[in-house]
Specification:
Bound molecules: zinc ion
Low-confidence stretches: 1-22
Oligomer: single chain
Helix content: 25-40%
Protein name: Cytochrome c domain-containing protein
Strand order of the largest sheet: 1-2-3-4
Order of helices and strands: HEEEEHHEHHEE
Shape: globular
Number of helices: 5
């Protein structure tokens, strides 16, 4: 009898909210610029992604985003140091979210055109500018919007390089060389004083 009840409950839920089969080769599951390493299924079928935008050169950190609701997380704010997620950290956060999230499934957001993506990055630089000093920008801070940006690291670097040429008053780039490794730092320039 219990089995029958269980089956009927399942049947009642499934027609509208049934999780779709994993679209293993669907383009929408391979957002440009990130590597999706794990996926969790929420209570009503929304997919929670664990992904990274790192190349591994300076360590690999992971982010979590739910495609059904607005949950997104790239660090543990309770920690006092090394807040970024390892793969195990991210998987734990994603699993915890999936076990409580009742959002319905949605696809990835549509990939924006180049002008829109470029403007997103320009706006990010503009927002960082302060009256008092140049502010260092960390491209890893973009991790949380990488699923809407959908661009490669190289493309993003290209946009910053062009912006530094076109608007040197807004962005400057510093290059330094340690042994055989080159480091690039980005700074949002101090706002003009009048
Ligand atoms: Zn969610």
């Amino acid at each position: 009898m219990a089995l029958t009840l269980f089956s009927r409950t399942r049947t009642a839920i499934e027609p509208e909210h049934a999780p779709q089969p994993w679209p293993e080769i669907g383009e929408t599951w391979k957002p440009e610029g990130v590597v999706v390493t794990q996926r969790f299924l929420g209570l009503a079928g929304a997919v929670v992604l664990v992904y990274t935008a790192d190349t591994g050169a300076n360590g690999t950190y992971y982010s979590v985003a739910c495609l059904g609701c607005h949950f997104a997380s790239a660090e543990d704010r309770q920690r006092t140091y090394n807040r970024r997620y390892s793969l195990a950290d991210a998987a734990k956060v994603a699993n915890e979210h999936a076990t409580t999230c009742r959002a319905l499934p949605r696809d990835l957001p549509a990939r924006p055109d180049d002008d829109t993506a470029r403007e997103q990055l320009h706006a990010w630089v503009r927002r960082a500018r302060r009256n008092t000093e140049d502010v260092q920008l960390w491209p890893s801070d973009l991790d949380l919007i990488r699923l809407t940006l959908q661009r490669t690291n190289d493309w993003i670097v290209g946009v910053f390089q062009q912006l530094a040429v076109d608007q040197p008053e807004a962005l400057r780039i510093e290059r330094s060389q340690y042994t055989d490794h080159a480091f690039v730092s980005y700074y949002a320039r101090r706002l003009p004083q009048d």
